Automatic annotation (TrEMBL):
Family note: Belongs to the short-chain dehydrogenases/reductases (SDR) family.
Organism annotation: Georgenia yuyongxinii
GO molecular function terms noted in the UniProt entry: oxidoreductase activity, acting on the CH-OH group of donors, NAD or NADP as acceptor
Domain of life: Bacteria
Protein name in UniProt: SDR family NAD(P)-dependent oxidoreductase
Alphabetized Gene3D superfamilies for the sequence: NAD(P)-binding Rossmann-like Domain (3.40.50.720)
Pfam families registered for this protein in UniProt: adh_short
């Protein structure tokens, strides 16, 4: 996939963004976040680890350091703007510029229809899953742009692409996350910013184990597939897919490159769009 993909504000020649040397991973104390943080360290990156549980983060930091990389523990709530700003500053003091941001921290609400949802829980999920990535990007992206570029990975979900009957806060939040990533791509691509919506599939985690939707599941996504995609993104191997959605367990770096070589990446491929009427005609109001 060496040629640019249409769909953003990029010109005919894309900026070349160097491979990442440092990363900040949220929700890094357990599950997918922990696996990604350790995988990035194994790939040669220094890693800032952000979550609320300092003790668990210390364990992950020890594992990162055991791989010969630097680690910094950032105990913070992603919904707290002041805490996020301070955490990013601490990470940059310890590790230098942040080249890769991985927005992994997230929650899911009770699996009930919207009219049965608890309003406080509903909004708390949106706060974590939308306000959190917004605050992290707001704090990290300006430095990336000042240095000529960087990469943002959002751990998204297929739930953000379709209608489902329950857990509506989670679904709403993942759709919103697509829009955050897409907006960053549109505004920052020409300045070297690359953004990716990575759906991890269904990995065995505390969250997925608690979900009624997965009680009978026998096939799970290997977390190593998620880590592989994020590591390749960190190295710049999927930059032509900036602004788009990829799914671990279905997409691999090789399959994505192959599809690109076939010219299958049109301007709307793997991006959130409303499909028009078959005739292509718009409504009477022109929208």
């Amino acid at each position: 996939m060496s040629s640019p993909v249409a769909g953003g504000r990029q010109g005919p020649v894309e900026a070349v963004v160097p491979p990442a040397r440092t990363a900040l991973v949220t929700g890094a104390s357990r599950g997918i976040g922990r696996a990604v943080a350790v995988g990035l360290a194994r790939a040669g990156l220094d890693v800032a680890l952000l979550a609320r549980d300092a003790d668990r983060l210390a364990e992950v930091a020890a594992e990162v350091r055991g791989l010969g990389r630097r680690a910094v523990v950032l105990a913070a709530d992603v919904t707290d703007g002041g805490a996020v700003t301070a955490a990013v500053a601490a990470a940059e003091t310890e590790l230098g510029a942040i080249d890769l941001l991985v927005n992994n921290a997230g929650r899911i609400d009770t699996e009930v229809p919207l009219w049965e949802a608890d309003p406080t829980e509903w909004w708390d999920v949106v706060e974590t899953n939308v306000r959190g990535p917004f605050l992290l990007a707001h704090a990290v992206v300006p430095g990336m742009l000042n240095r000529g570029g960087g990469r943002v990975v959002d751990l998204n979900s297929g739930a953000g692409t379709r209608d489902t009957p329950d857990a509506t806060a989670y679904n709403v939040s993942k759709t919103a996350l697509f829009r955050i990533g897409g907006s960053l791509h549109e505004a920052g691509h020409a300045r070297g910013l690359r953004t990716f919506e990575v759906a991890p599939g269904v990995v065995v985690t505390d969250m997925t184990r608690s979900m009624r939707a997965h009680t009978a599941r026998t096939e799970w996504t290997d977390v190593a597939d998620v880590v592989e995609l994020v590591v390749v993104i960190a190295r710049g191997g999927l930059d032509d897919l900036s602004g788009r959605y990829v799914r671990a367990g279905t997409d691999t770096p090789a399959s994505l490159r192959f599809r690109g070589s076939l010219g299958e990446l049109g301007p709307d491929t793997r991006r959130l769009r409303v499909r028009d009427w078959p005739s292509g005609r718009t409504g009477q109001n022109g929208t």
